[in-house]
Design goal:
The complex is a heterodimer of chains A (114) and B (117).
Chain A: E1 4-6, E2 10-13, E3 19-25, E4 31-38, E5 42-49, E6 56-57, E7 65-70, E8 73-78, E9 87-94, E10 104-105, E11 109-113
Parallel strand pairs in A: 2-11
Antiparallel strand pairs in A: 1-3, 3-8, 4-5, 4-9, 5-6, 7-8, 9-10, 9-11
Chain B: E1 4-7, E2 10-14, E3 19-25, E4 30-38, E5 44-51, E6 56-59, E7 62-67, E8 72-77, E9 86-94, E10 105-107, E11 111-116
The chains are: A mainly beta (114), B mainly beta (117).
């Protein structure tokens, strides 16, 4: 079974702190994604990566950056956390190219910025 | 820009009923469509994936259909059970210009399903 893990289930940070959210997948997937999920707004894509050291902006990249130094790991960075970044963050991975490209999700990190 | 809409936003039914969840999308140039289930506070679990060339997919009591030309998909749940209570999300994967896909998903806002014993 594909497994996508996220470093924390719950995280509480203060405004202005630098925050790292880590995601690891064990299926050698090329594509990895970071979403945030908010009531009334649904899931929105922040960034995605289709290869090591490659990244592409999603729909709402402002206030975030990412890092992909190894194929299995994709990190989301909040350079200076703000209260409007309080949200559920979901990581996902998939194969690239052709085929089903089914996307597999991690359990999510509930981040609260106070 | 692709937009995905799910109707209804919430649905409450007694156990044993058959039900239909609806999903519509504005751009028919999709690679495939995926239905997910999400339990409160948890991640997403993939239920069914329909490639753009397919009309339907079945898994147990679940059946998903796709009408790409009209921009619609439905998820049919037969003989609903309290354990089916969750949020159901529809997501489409768009085509790139070359006919492939990066795999990015555009999500609907979900249907919250409650099945009463």
């Amino acid at each position: 079974d594909v497994k996508v893990t996220q470093s924390s289930r719950y995280l509480v940070k203060r405004t202005g702190e630098k925050v790292f959210l880590e995601c690891v997948q064990d299926m050698d997937h090329e594509n990895m994604f970071w979403y945030r999920q908010d009531p009334g707004l649904g899931l929105r894509l922040i960034y995605f990566s289709y290869d090591v050291k490659m990244k592409e902006k999603g729909d709402i990249p402002e206030g975030y950056s990412v890092s992909r130094e190894k194929k299995e790991r994709f990190s989301l960075i909040l350079e200076s956390a703000s209260t409007n970044q309080t949200s559920m963050y979901l990581c996902a991975s998939s194969l690239m190219g052709a085929g089903r490209l089914e996307q597999y999700f991690g359990p999510g990190t509930r981040l609260t910025v106070t | 820009k692709q937009e995905v809409t799910q109707i209804p936003a919430a649905l409450s039914v007694p156990e044993g009923e058959n039900l239909v969840l609806n999903c519509s999308f504005t751009d028919s140039a999709i690679y495939n469509l995926q239905w997910f289930r999400q339990d409160p506070g948890k991640g997403l679990t993939s239920l069914l994936l329909i490639q753009s060339s397919q009309r339907e997919q079945t898994s147990g009591r679940l059946n998903a259909s796709l009408d790409k030309s009209s921009g619609r998909s439905t998820l049919y749940i037969a003989a609903s059970q309290p354990g089916d209570s969750a949020t159901y999300l529809c997501a489409v994967r768009n085509l790139n210009a070359g006919g492939t896909s990066y795999g990015k998903l555009t999500f609907g806002q979900g249907t919250i399903l409650t099945v009463h014993p």
